[in-house]
Amino acid sequence: MESTPNWHGSSLRHVRMNHDSVRSLRFVLLEDDPNDAELVQLELARNGFDVSWCHVASEKQFREALGNGEIDLVLADYTLPGFDGRKALTITQKTLPGVPFIFVSGSLGEERAIEALKSGATDYVLKDRLQRLPTVVNRALQESRERRERRQAEAALDEQRVLLSTVMDSLPEIIYTVDTQNRMTAVNRAMIEATGKTREQLLGRQVSEIWTDETSLDVEAQAATVMRNGRAIADQERAWISADGSVRWFTLTHAPLRDHGKITGLVCAVQEVTDRKALEQEILEISNREQRRLGSDLHDGLGQELTGLSLLLKGLEVQLSREAPQYLSQITKISDLLARAIQSTRSLARGLAPVNLERGGLPEALKHLAARCTDMYNLQCTFSLNGQKVPELEEVAATHLYRVAQEATTNAARYARAKSISIELRTVARKLQLSIADDGIGLTAGLAHGKPGMGLKIMEYRARMLGGSVAFEEPDRGTKIVLVAPLHMLRPSKEKRAAAG
Q1: Are 344 and 253 in the same domain?
Q2: CATH code for position 222
Q3: Is the dihedral of CA 114, 115, 121, 125 positive or negative?
Q4: Helix or strand or coil: residue 416?
Q5: Which domain holds residue 259?
Q6: 491-501 pLDDT per residue, tens
């Protein structure tokens, strides 16, 4: 009857006390010769190991020892009566995968040694060269520790990937990541649903390969800029024209991904805000409609009544010149006052509804703005129309552009102390560009005096409503404000054009 394998501790504690660092080692030794077994544990103990070992000589004892607690290492002779090291290696690989297995044998030739290593053994040591054993054991334990740490790191990374994927898929926003070539490396469920494609069909492709329109190219250009300068861009609004001609609005966030400081790609978030933009647009449209109504009432109501009164006064003036000429001077003064009142009424009406699409549209409105600015502020304000002919614009869009020009000229005249202002409207490719330049003290100096800060924010907001952007530049002298917007965002919708036709 075989005995149960017992675990033993090293008996060379006086030897180990001479070492600065003592390493614990728990191993199973398969060896049929007790003397050889003692030499093995002695060699390890005298080389700084706090040895806890189990000596076994049969398959039954070997299996029991492997199941008795955590094992750091297995040492085995190659040839034993009724049992051999090759079978012990197979048992160890199945029972304790990853635990180093070292053959310690006196009958292991070169051919067998190579075969054993191919079968999965960590290393081998000949019994007549036991002095190599501590070095081999140290290397085997180090490699085992590195493999274990690598597996733990990979497992933790897999857990993080699962967590990140779960979080991404649970978000309503479109989330995706790209590499430095702008090719998608991860996508969430919202992205899959929005494109109607599978995850496999999206990964490795660029956004412009999924959505083939100008907006996608702009998004990729923006992503390239972020990867180049490393500065994240958050909540930038973009407009996208659907196949049916409707406009959908999105906010985009691009943030760089870094590996030890080096940018390796971007994480991109896209949120649709069409409903919010529609509400904002409706609020602005309500304001514009009310202003147009007031302007129409002034022009067609009060303006016409004052004009009628002026005609009556002209008749009275003719009659008094024959019958009571002494009152003629007073009538002339009243006529002058009435003429100024009519002119003021017309100016108010034009200011409330500045863009009349039927009377020259935006270019004509900007021309009148330049003339009024010249008269009001006693400076030189000019308007020029360059490039291609300005196409038909939607009234709300034209009003936004006019208000930006109006705000810029007012700031230049009131706060920048400008002597000349130039307004330029031009079409470049498929974009409309509005520029307002002045020769004043400059934007920075104006802001330093606490002046037109809110006006700049309103200009930026109007530009975003048009799907464009506004830039504030300071050349050698003065300020230049440039608004650029895509023409397809400024033109009337198909429905409005059909209704007008």
Answers
A1: no
A2: 3.30.450.20
A3: negative
A4: coil
A5: 171-272
A6: 775 544 444 44
